[in-house]
């Protein structure tokens, strides 16, 4: 920035033949004096001197600094988080740490929590949308997603705003986005496969699943989606691009089963002992990890993933089969105790080497069956 001061002076003009105003910058006592000769030339004309009082130290670099600033701005997003509960706050901390602007909205009032994180809380969705965020991030419970999305005043947003979700099921939000959002909005479905407990020591190596469901062709829209994904890349997540349907298939067999086991074990009220094995420590950690998540989340994993019911049935069958295997062995021992003497005395009972798999007809070992046949 340059500051000028004007000093009117009266000087005798030399025979000036200039046909236009002349200016010159004269260094003087560490200041710069800018002289302006006015037109037309006069014998005694007033000469006004402009004195430069200060020059911004960074003047030669202003343009460069401006460019750098513009570049930095282009890598920063305005992210509006809808659903500022457990997981929303957890994500907001990372977004703020990486220099993004975070707006938050939730059913409950999280004004002071948002403030402590460095985010701005808007209890009115209209006000939030009028900030024209680049990204609307849906972070509500799975069960309330549709209601929350339908309440967003879409007309207050920029027409191509990017909608992202982080729900633990993926086909469901994808379908809701398609139903509710006009085609000019972009859609990115994601699932960070970690939470405030499992990701408390950093996200390095933790899987982040995403599906670019609908991203417009323009460079700016492609870059915006990539900039959002970069947040997780920079934190060291293992980025996995896969379809929402594939995600739900894998997640039912892994995440839903993990949560189910954690909740079953929680009901057993397990306690730490003075002789915990490493395996038991892992079991206690599993209980701690899953019990810190809301029941809404667990119920959402079940209700809104069509593969979950099949996995629950498989778990049930596996448990039944394991019990049968255990009780089968026990039965054999009891039989020996009860009937052993009689058998020694001559009455031979058929023996099964193994408990047959469910539904398989009982087959005796060949030697026994042939001896029985001969009876
Ligand atoms: P959650 O119980 O699944 O969701 C809590 C959030 O949903 C809160 O922001 C809550 O708002 C909001 N909410 C609940 N019922 C609502 C309703 N009827 N109307 C409006 N808002 C409602 O717990 P979460 O752990 O924070 O998870 C949030 C999302 O992230 C879920 O979709 C979950 O699947 C996903 N996710 C979670 C984890 C994790 O480890 N926790 C990991 C990956 C993805 P208020 O607090 O204002 O009531």
Automatic annotation (TrEMBL):
Keywords: Oxidoreductase. It is an enzyme of class 1 (oxidoreductase). Its EC number is 1.3.1.78. Gene3D superfamilies: NAD(P)-binding Rossmann-like Domain (3.40.50.720). Residues 77-355 form the Prephenate/arogenate dehydrogenase domain. GO terms for molecular function: arogenate dehydrogenase (NADP+) activity; prephenate dehydrogenase (NAD+) activity. It holds the Pfam family F420_oxidored. PANTHER family: AROGENATE DEHYDROGENASE 2, CHLOROPLASTIC, AROGENATE DEHYDROGENASE-RELATED. This is Arogenate dehydrogenase 2, chloroplastic. It comes from Castilleja foliolosa.
């Amino acid at each position: 920035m340059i500051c000028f001061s004007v000093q009117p002076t009266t000087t005798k003009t030399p025979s000036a033949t200039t046909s236009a105003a002349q200016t010159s910058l004269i260094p003087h006592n560490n200041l710069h004096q800018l002289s302006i000769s006015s037109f037309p030339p006069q014998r005694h004309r007033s000469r006004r001197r402009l004195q430069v009082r200060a020059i911004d130290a960074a003047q030669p670099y202003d343009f460069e600094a401006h460019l750098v600033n513009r570049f930095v701005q282009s890598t920063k997003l305005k992210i509006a988080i809808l659903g500022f509960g457990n997981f929303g706050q957890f994500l907001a901390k990372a977004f703020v740490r990486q220099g993004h602007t975070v707006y938050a909205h939730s059913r409950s009032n999280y004004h002071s929590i948002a403030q402590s994180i460095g985010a701005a809380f808007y209890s009115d969705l209209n006000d939030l949308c009028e900030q024209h965020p680049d990204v609307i991030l849906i972070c509500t419970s799975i069960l309330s997603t549709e209601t929350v999305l339908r309440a967003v005043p879409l007309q207050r947003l920029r027409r191509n705003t990017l909608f992202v979700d982080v729900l633990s099921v993926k086909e469901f939000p994808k379908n809701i986005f398609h139903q509710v959002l006009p085609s000019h909005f972009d859609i990115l479905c994601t699932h960070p496969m970690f939470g405030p407990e499992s990701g408390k020591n950093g996200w390095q190596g933790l899987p982040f699943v995403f599906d670019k469901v609908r991203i417009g062709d323009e460079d700016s829209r492609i870059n915006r989606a990539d900039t959002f994904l970069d947040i997780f890349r920079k934190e060291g997540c293992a980025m996995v691009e896969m379809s929402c349907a594939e995600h739900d298939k894998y997640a039912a067999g892994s995440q839903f089963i993990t949560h189910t086991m954690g909740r079953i074990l929680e009901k057993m009220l397990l306690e730490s002992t003075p002789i915990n094995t490493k395996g038991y420590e892992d079991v206690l950690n599993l209980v701690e990890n899953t019990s810190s998540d809301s029941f809404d989340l667990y119920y959402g994993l079940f209700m809104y993933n069509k593969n979950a019911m099949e996995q629950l049935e498989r778990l049930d069958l596996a448990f039944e089969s394991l019990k049968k295997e255990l009780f089968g062995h026990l039965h054999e021992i009891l039989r020996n105790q009860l009937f052993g003497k009689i058998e020694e005395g001559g009455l031979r009972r058929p023996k099964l080497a193994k408990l047959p798999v469910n539904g398989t007809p009982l087959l005796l070992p060949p030697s026994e069956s042939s001896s029985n046949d001969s009876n």
